[in-house]
Request: fold
Amino acid sequence: TQAELVREKQSAHLAVRKHRAAAIDEEKTYAYFHAYTAYRHGFRADAVTSWSLMVELFAGDPKKTKHDYYVLLEDMSLNFPDRKAHTRLLKLEQYDDEKEQKQGRAKHCPKLDSLDETMERSTHRILITTGHSGIGETTFRENEDYLKRKVHGRGAIILKPTGGMLDLWRKAGLFRHLQNGLAPGFHWLSSSDDDADNPQGHGAPGKLMLIAETLLRRAEVFRDDACTVKDFIKGAVLATDAAELLGGRTPTLTLAAITLKHEYEARAECAFVGVGYHFDVAGRIAEIGTQLRTVCKWFSRTNERFSALDATVVITNRLAIVFRNSGQFEEEQICLASVRRAHRRLVMLQAANPLAWLVNGILLYAEFLLVSFQRFLGAIALWLTGLTVGWFAVDATAQGWQAAMVGVCGAFFGGSPYNSTNPNWPLAFLSCTAVVVGIFHLGVFVSYLYSIVSRK
Reply:
């Protein structure tokens, strides 16, 4: 039975997908992309790309069999090629057309009547649309109002294009309404603390490891030939299944699966023109960090942090290459910043020299500046403000704020240190500090501009 299968999987520390999601769209790329987004977050997912399947799942007598989907991701304008003529699905609610015939999605698919709790009981029903219905804003507003009146669960509308998988999930409100954005009851990573009841030791069961190795081998072989969004999603599914079967208990193999999973997902996002130009790379890197920290707990405490940082460098490097090859320059920059940060921490873990700590602090500040140009300008403003206040405080001639600003700007931007026949050592120190800091920021600025120009 299903309950026995769930208990068996739980005893083997396997991921259990208790809930289902459906991605409904006549454009297969959208359907696969949305379905995989639900799959990666712990749902069993169906891609509904034909009217015949739509009828099989959502038509018929809802009193006999109801759909059991927890999440519905639907396109608004469903123009299935096998749909019968004069079957209108644009409006969600049932209505009478100009010929006084019943139309609407709730009419042709009664199990999608969200105003009847006995028929449609999805917890999240998300309508994904470009916002253009072909007949003005009326239909859009009517569907929006219909979803607000949903009796069971919640309804929402999000507009295409979205910024990749994580952005789709966030705009749908599922990170907010689901714990960590995952399906209820779903988890696939085991902590090393869970090993107490495992007489086999820390490794995954041999048969599961054999299956995972086969899945990863297929994903690796398939990697060079993949060129479409469907191909990339197929590779991501193979890697995701391998990672979930291992559950982190064979850490090195799990890290390889996580690497392939995120690489395929990034390639799918870059290859799909149906998503926005910018992706939520920061959210992806944060997710990778969480996964790596859990997996690397299976290493010894001595190597735990080293292993996590090593894997971070490898994965983010692979992602940076994907984004570079796709012309996603800002996303590449975020990945490179993550690589620099992880590499610096690796060096710092091995350093015992105070001089190395000083160098690490300087590199940390440089990383902070390179994150964005706005941050760089903000840092310069803070330096100029602080140095000007200090200059005014120690200026023995008391020439005022204007003289302090001129002196600081001349030293910071012009490299001209304080010069006077009557030495004022605190002022000379501030002047030299301004020169050094100005030269440092100039170097960072040139480096930042070169990285932009060389990539674009």
About this structure: The two ends are 58 Å apart (CA to CA). The mean pLDDT is 85. The longest helix spans residues 425-455. Residues 273 and 350 are 44 Å apart (CA to CA).
